[in-house]
TrEMBL record:
Active site: H135 (tele-amp-histidine intermediate)
Organism: Oryza brachyantha (malo sina)
Pfam family name, one: HIT
HIT domain: residues covered: 41-148
Name of protein: HIT domain-containing protein
Gene Ontology molecular-function annotations: adenylylsulfatase activity
GO terms classed as biological process: purine ribonucleotide metabolic process; sulfur compound metabolic process
Sequence motif Histidine triad motif, location on chain: 133-137
Length: 193
């Protein structure tokens, strides 16, 4: 495979067309996992079957404006191959997507006259993912935009005794050993305030 080629089994051809109306183009839709092909809105955009405002495109990924933005310039970086979650996405594809973040976010911030941005991945239903095709959100921010409350209201200091068991189990998942973790977690999750 040539350098930068799509990781899909069959190459995907994306017509280089001017931006179309963004109805249904990049905003997230309700529902469960969609099958690759007809049901996945991002696959339809990639194939040129659904409208979107394309900002950037290469062999591996596409960047479009979200059709239901949290802020002007809210963009999505989408791999051209269908992967339902971040953990299902091959590391080289994730690396290619991440490598575009500085380039794209700089252009988005300049265009929107913002000096900050959030990069968000909603991975899994509990995290708010509703289009089950991996994608990164780049959300331009400015001071006082009140997009969401500060995290400092919900954060608390880490307690070493509460988290040492969790650290052990995470390391066990990274570097499995014969003893492994018990089914019962040896830690207690922080209580909601």
């Amino acid at each position: 495979r040539r350098r930068g080629a799509s990781p899909c089994s069959a190459p995907i051809s994306v017509p280089a067309s001017p931006p179309a109306r963004a109805t249904g183009g990049g905003g997230e839709v309700a529902g469960g996992r969609k099958a690759e092909g007809k049901g996945c809105v991002f696959c339809r955009i990639i194939r040129g079957e659904a409208p979107a405002f394309k900002v950037y495109e290469d062999d591996v990924c596409l960047c479009i404006l979200d059709s239901h933005p949290l802020a002007p310039g809210h963009s999505l970086i989408i791999p051209k191959c269908h992967f339902p979650s971040l953990e299902a996405t091959p590391p080289p594809v994730v690396a290619a997507m991440c490598s575009k973040v500085p380039f794209l976010s700089n252009a988005i911030m300049k265009a929107t006259q913002c000096d900050s941005f959030n990069m968000v991945v909603n991975n899994g239903a509990a995290a708010g993912q509703v289009i089950f095709h991996t994608h990164f959100h780049i959300i331009p921010r400015r001071s006082g935009d009140k997009l969401w409350p500060t995290e400092s209201l919900r954060r608390r200091s880490i307690e070493p005794n509460e988290t040492s068991g969790l650290v052990t189990c995470i390391k066990e998942q990274l570097y499995p050993s014969p003893e492994g973790c018990n089914d019962e977690p040896p830690y207690s999750l922080p209580k909601e305030r």
